[in-house]
Amino acid sequence: MEETDREAVATAVQRVAGMLQRPDQLDKVEQYRRREARKKASVEARLKAAIQSQLDGVRTGLSQLHNALNDVKDIQQSLIDVNKDWRQSINTIENLKDVKDAVVQHSQLAAAVENLKNIFSVPEIVREAQDLIEQGELLQAHRKLMDLECSRDNLMYEQYRMDSKNTHDMNLIHTYFGDMQKLSEELAKQLWMVVQRSLVTVRRDPTLLVSVVRIIEREEKIDRRMIDRKKQTGFIPPGRPKKWKEKMFNILERTVSTRIEGTQADTRESDKMWLVRHLEIIRKYVLDDLLVAKTLLDQCFPLHYDIFKKLLSMYHQALSIRMQELASEDLEANEIVSLLTWVLNTYKSTEMMGNSELSPEVDVNCLNLLISQNVVDQLLSKYMSTLTSNIIGWLRKALETDKKDWVKETEPEADQDGYYQTTLPAIVFQMFEQNLQVAAQISEDLKTKVLLLCLQQMNSFLTRYKDEAQLYKEEHLKNRQYPQCYVQYMVAVINNCQTFKESIISLKRKYLKIEMEDTLSSSHTNMDVILDIIAKEGCSSLLDEVFMDLEPHLNELMTKKWLMGSNAVGTICVTVEDYFNDFAKIKKPYKKTMTIEAHRRVVVEYIRAIMLKRISFKNAEERKEGAERMIKEAEQFRFLFKKLAAGSGEDTEGLCGIIEAIAEVIKLTDPSLLYLEVSTLVSKYPDIRDDHIAALLTVRGDASRDMKQTIIETLDQGPSQPNPNYVPIFKEIAVPTLTVPKLLK
């Protein structure tokens, strides 16, 4: 207390010091004293009130505790009295056992009396119920069955209460009501028949289906009541619970499975399209059934049955089992496609589960796959393997068929632009197109894989195509009279190369995503290279054909006969032009190449004839005549190839200009200027070799050995500045006889 007093005094001193900090505040001391006195009085009043309240609460609590103690004592005394009375009444209860047995017996007799009418009328009621079942009055028949079952169950229950171990009397009751059990089974058969045909019945006679559902609901209630009584008494009548609701759903499930399995009307042996027909029938049946279930069947069942959702689940499960069975069979490639297309696309499309009339109850996004992803992958793998074998076989067969056309005696067909062609590109790419369209129905990924497979096999096929075209040429060379239309079909082969190129581009543009193009660029380039090789070899073989016919006329060039006025070049031009009438059926890219190559080869053969030194001019007159003839013939070649190359943009001047340049060397009359003329020739055509110059001087016929040697040695020492646009031509021309060392000896 002293410590508290000291703290109070110290606090008061601080408060007073805070109030009297200025002299003018001394005037207010009395005012401060009165204010503090009021505060003190207020605090004391609140303290007194709080203490009084607590004292009242304690007084009330003590009073209640006192009352509770008295109540506990009273209850204790009452329990002692009850215990005493109970011990005294044990003997009295044992003396009432006979009364208890009499009460039980009375209860049984009362139950018997209550059901006496049904007991004596069991056979008659059973017959009436059977008649009602035959008449289709299932509700009334079930009412009678319920009455009989109620009578039997009550009797058996009372017997069970009296003596649960007396099986003889229980069996006696059960036997007496035996016909009732048969009646129940007969009624159940009728119910299950209606349930099996529920989707048909709901259209024709929905009332009958509603009656069946009501009967099942009654039985479910009785089942629940009997189960509850068993929990209380341990007794349950024979045959309970019937679980007719569960049986109904089991029958519906079996019915759905049977309906799905029963849609297969054909086999592979009887109809190649058996699977397509089977799947289409399933689609139609399932869609029709679910629409009926949603619009009609749902109204015949209580809401808690959720009949549409359950049927949807049953159909999905049955379809899944059926699709798994089909997937496990040894399916062909087209059958795998049909199955996967149906499972992955059709099933969730608007043609089936995605039908607008089924929404919103059916959400396709919540439907699982009918077959597992693993099975899908296995089927796709098998399909790709089978498709690979099929494509190889189809390509081989297509090529064999095309080869048979090559030996026909009739010309190949022409397209709308008049270009020769065979059916090979159309057949090949039609096959590719069909397989890609089929793959696209399944998935984008499969479509890409099939496209890659097609292009890969196309690569291998083109190599075989190239080999077959080469064999075709070799066989023709053994007998140039056979095949009769060799030129025309070789033109068609060349055109096919261009068609193949265009078709490959079209196929990629149509079926390949832009981001995938880089992965195929090398493969595409390789195919283009092979096709260009085939076309180039084809063009070369056709030109070989031309030059084999030209050979006799080329052999006349630069001979005495030629100098005397041979028409060899005219014949050459006519022959080339005649061949190019057929070559006009070659498509532009290759036709231009063909014209350029023919022009080049004609000039090469002409220059080669000069270099063969078949003639040596004796005098200036012959040199002038020969040179003028060469210039004239160069002009003929220029005119011919200008005509053949019309519109192609080919340079027809340069090659023929070589002949004219050589003619100028031969025509030169002043030998002292020969070196200058030859050096001009060499500067324009730097691939001319020494043996070419020697042969050219030999043809002139007026150059001595010393002059030849001097010109050649001087030219060897001079600088060479070749034209960058010049395409070497002399390197292909060999001088077959005399070489420079022999000439200079």
From TrEMBL:
It is found in: Cell projection, Growth cone; Cytoplasm, Perinuclear region; Golgi apparatus; Midbody. Keywords: Acetylation, Cell projection, Cytoplasm, Exocytosis, Golgi apparatus, Protein transport, Transport. It comes from the Eukaryota. Its main location: other. GO terms for molecular function: SNARE binding. Signal peptide: none annotated. InterPro entries: EXOC3/Sec6, EXOC3/Sec6_C. The keyword Methyltransferase does not apply. GO terms for cellular component: exocyst; Golgi apparatus; growth cone; membrane; midbody; perinuclear region of cytoplasm. GO terms for biological process: exocyst localization; exocytosis; protein transport. Pfam families: Sec6. The exocyst complex is composed of EXOC1, EXOC2, EXOC3, EXOC4, EXOC5, EXOC6, EXOC7 and EXOC8. Interacts with EXOC3L1. Interacts with BIRC6/bruce. Interacts with MYRIP. Interacts with SLC6A9. Belongs to the SEC6 family. PANTHER family: EXOCYST COMPLEX COMPONENT 3, EXOCYST COMPLEX COMPONENT SEC6-RELATED. Component of the exocyst complex involved in the docking of exocytic vesicles with fusion sites on the plasma membrane. This is Exocyst complex component 3. It comes from Apteryx mantelli. The gene is EXOC3.
